[in-house]
């Protein structure tokens, strides 16, 4: 049960900005944007076209999204940063003289969710109600054939639990909602495909309330051909680097800083 408006803590986000990092998603981005615009509380949908070689940007704009473009591919972590800065700049530009900024919750989703994008709405609920600082989507088994062998997931899951105590169900889930304060606590991002793993650890270390939320989402599943295996090798490398960097940081700082809340799935 969510808090009433009178009980929502001060500084709680008043709306949701949906940020969609995307590269070469021209076949799916319009449907994803249209569905994201239906998320309750979302008053801004922003696509970061991360160096696409196709019409991802124009199709996202035609579907009603604000679009920021990277001329070259900079990776998901940088696309997330670009999107968050664009939202912050918009919030500042909306202020009347003497008015204090009110931040939106930042809801990051993938560009290939298509019509299921609206089903990320449960991620925003606890954040808007002041019940969580960050939420992470737990997806059902995907209907499309494919998928890997679990090496990267296992590495991330064990590493997150070892370093923070958080037991992640789907540690690589890219669908996440968080307050501006929580987002700031994750800086600097781990590079490459280690961004989600590093983010979860950093959130818990910063004392943020992190919750997992079940969401009925469907996206493209990576196959098992050579290209897919090279992609997983890059994922494994980046996750290992993110964990190693935080292992070192924990030793230098004298150990991890436990969070106020570590887990608890919401359905």
Automatic annotation (TrEMBL):
Catalysed reactions, as listed in the record: (2R)-3-phosphoglycerate + UDP-alpha-D-glucose = (2R)-2-O-(alpha-D-glucopyranosyl)-3-phospho-glycerate + UDP + H(+); an NDP-alpha-D-glucose + (2R)-3-phosphoglycerate = (2R)-2-O-(alpha-D-glucopyranosyl)-3-phospho-glycerate + a ribonucleoside 5'-diphosphate + H(+)
Domain of life: Bacteria
Domain (Glycosyltransferase 2-like) ranges: 18-144
Family: Belongs to the glycosyltransferase 2 family.
Name of this protein: Glucosyl-3-phosphoglycerate synthase
Keywords carried by this UniProt record: Glycosyltransferase, Magnesium, Transferase
Source species of the chain: Brevibacterium yomogidense
Cofactor entry: Mg(2+); Mn(2+)
Keyword Magnesium found: yes
GO molecular function, one term: glycosyltransferase activity
Enzyme Commission number(s): 2.4.1.266
